[in-house]
Write a structure and sequence with these properties.
five-stranded antiparallel sheet, single chain, about 130 residues, 5 strands, about 30% strand
Amino acid sequence: MRGIWVCGVLGLLPLVGCSSSVSTAASDVASEFYRAVAADDGAAACDLLAPQTIHELEQSSQAPCRMAILQVDIPEAGEVVELKRFGSEAQVRLRADTAFLADFDKGWRVVAVSCASRGDLPYDCRVKG
């Protein structure tokens, strides 16, 4: 169901308004993910990905997540500049990238990352589940 959420919400984000705050667990997880990638710590980065995202990444790359995530061109994103929450989902905009997260039983996990806005179209993400 999380994969369906990403496709649906990614297309609707320009139309939806939500409160914004950068001091939440979702933005912390996004920042931690980007720090792990920048440090070439694929295992730590993968620990922060949603299960379906890990599955899609491993299937498309034919490599374990810890190796595959470091092969993706994920930018050094910088600090969080905006957070939009949609119940148990969130969009986290950083200085140089956008990520989408969902709240699972184990906490916030990255569902899609390295996402570029395409105006009224859904975001284009290099990593997604």
